[in-house]
User: Fold these one by one.
Assistant:
Number 1:
Amino acid sequence: MTENLVVSIFEVESEAYQAMTILKQSPILEDTFVKQAVLVKKDGDDIKDLDYFDTGADTMDGFALGGMLGALVGVLGGPIGVLLGASYGMLAGGSVDALDALDNASLIEQIIDKLQDGEVAIIALVNEEDESILDKSLENYKTITARFDAAVVAAEVEEAMETEKELERQARAALRKEKSDEFKSKVEKHRAKLKAFFAGE
């Protein structure tokens, strides 16, 4: 059995809802088990969570990742997703440095590249032996399906979240420095005024 992250992008939004309903009703298809699935829509830089389900059970190999899909959606629609979706050449110094840890995050980048603005997709954590079983359940819909190693995506999500924290830390430090410089400027301005006041100017 293999633990995959399955991304199915639908041409018709209503069909995505239909497929999601079927997965909710029958998460086990022969030797295929859909543990978690989320229906998302890309709206500009944002990734909207339209629907979600979790069977609450471990997969057949005991592979439970808890809120992995929620974390992945957060990364895709968060600052890392925005930065990875943008041109690296347009990024400035510190941001590029902060993304060094994600140089090998190819799977997340591929997911971002595949999901275009306005498109709807089902992202599912699946334990499967035969990929054709889940594919067959989607064959009546206009959809493109890609698979990614779930363990690799989970590691990339964890790394991305750590990088987001570092970006936030750098942003706070920059704001504090800016505030500090601005405050010093105000102090010097008031010092000059006080000197002039006491000098009778």
Note: Helices lie at 13-25, 68-77, 79-85, 93-98, 106-114, 131-137, 150-198.
Number 2:
Amino acid sequence: MSYTKLLYHIIFRTKKNENVINEAHEKELYAYIMGFIKNKKSHLYRIGGMPDHIHILTDIHPSIAVSDFMRDMKSNASKWLKKNSNFPHFNGWAESFAAFTYNEKEKDIITNYIKKQKVHHAAITFEEKLRQLLIENGIKIDEHYFLKD
């Protein structure tokens, strides 16, 4: 028996940062993602976002690599969104994503950050905040690939 608790703050965006996740129907998408996460024997602590990106705080079952988890989640959500008439302009997800790990003591901080996305992004752009998060987590930004699709 192994014991793990790996909290991931994952951020992923729409292709070309298109504003296609409309607020009136975002909860449908969030519920779909919650179901996907549950089916992967993982736990969603919080989900939220903006019309062009989503933040999730989740643990991922230790048998699943985060890259596989994200590939499958984006693929499944993409198929669902393209069939859903409430998201008529959805064209796909960007290839990249950002994932940061946190410990249990930081869970409330990240949960509150995700909860307040709409207020937060009234003051800072997605690009600025993503740059800040990458730098805070010691990740070197390659400008050639940054926010490119």
Note: The mean pLDDT is 94.
Number 3:
Amino acid sequence: MYRTVIFDLDGTILNTIDDLADAGNWVCRKNGWPEHTVDEFKAMVGHGIPNLVAKFSPEGFRSPLLVVNTLSQFNQYYGAHNIEKTAPYEGIPALLERLKAAGVQLAVYSNKADEFSKVIVEHYFPGVFDFIRGKVEGVPVKPDPAGIHAVMKALGADPAETLFVGDSSVDIRTGHNAGTRTCGVTWGYRSRESLAAAGAEFMAGTVAELEAVIMEDKPCC
């Protein structure tokens, strides 16, 4: 059994894509830009909100100065509407409760802004996670390992006893860069093939399969 499990947020424990797409398309409408489909937003997420904003902005509006303005618009809308369509993936709340009861340390590490991450996770999983961390100013986004190292330090976690769970190749690379093993979940926003290509040690297509990875594999003891 892993002693610590760190979860990605978007596409892993929560399906947030509709609220993200609504916020992005609100910004597009406000500026008279073309809107995007939900599937197009799925391909854009995973690298932090500033990167998402740059991706849905037209090519001529991607300079750092213009993105700062657009990011402010996005944060204004998303901050007020980020729990309207978002929902936990089926089976995740019960899984987290079982893991917590078994004594597993639980954390979230996301490229989503730290304030948004903490508010959203606590809304849907109050008191469940031992540590929640999003994008902090001055700290590089995933797959840089700085943020996940900070999570493990806060929890006193040993990388050899830690599993990082996510839905994208960025998450898999993050875990590897931090010295943890990884499990890719296929119910999120990326394909099984991309997770395998990134070198995920484990793959889970269902919550039951994820639980088996966490509880039955013995990487350290």
Note: Residues 17-81 form one domain.
